[in-house]
Amino acid sequence: MKKLNVKAFVAIGMLSSIAYILMLLNFPLPPFPNFLMIDFSDIPALIAALIFGPIAGILVELFKNVLDYFMTGSATGVPVGHVANFIAGIMFILPTYYVYNKLKTKKGMTIGLIIGSGVMAVTMSLLNYYVFLPAYTMFLNMPVMSAPEMKSTVVAFILPFNFIKGILITSVFLVLFTKLNTWITKQRALNTVA
């Protein structure tokens, strides 16, 4: 595991700020409910993970969500959506990081991003069914959803939304990765030695 030095923490802070700004630039996808928003804030977290290791990526995910919670708040009063976003980000960046770290090619990055998208979609479907949807209904004082209602919501909206979100992030990141690959490789080497 890479030790994080002062340079790494400064970079994590900057990438967290960029991730927070990207999180504010979210937008809905028409067929899905308004609480499901697309944003590209996982890209700086993925860059942090690739350069400084998985802990750095997790920290960027954490800091962007903490910043967003304190700056914009939450409809529920508690950070249910922020916790969901944090876990979704981790479920996307960690598989991507580990697959790419093993293969270290553009094809490996593509495979990692697709696996990350799938892991995020499946994990978030399960967590929404068992944790997040019940928490939303409880904190918003909404009627409790029955098991069939929750299942249909997860299958019709949560699962496809997270997979589409993963594919959109994958598409944007692959364009960036083509341009930044040499720089990321150089930074990884510098931080492994440092």
TrEMBL record:
Annotated TM spans: 6-25, 45-63, 83-100, 112-133, 153-178
Gene3D superfamilies noted in UniProt: 1.10.1760.20
Primary site of residence: membrane
Membrane topology annotation: Multi-pass membrane protein
Annotated Pfam families: ECF_trnsprt
UniProt KW keywords: Cell membrane, Membrane, Transmembrane, Transmembrane helix, Transport
Cellular compartments annotated: Cell membrane
Similarity remark: Belongs to the prokaryotic riboflavin transporter (P-RFT) (TC 2.A.87) family.
Role according to the record: Probably a riboflavin-binding protein that interacts with the energy-coupling factor (ECF) ABC-transporter complex.
Designated name of the protein: Riboflavin transporter
The species this protein was found in: Cytobacillus purgationiresistens
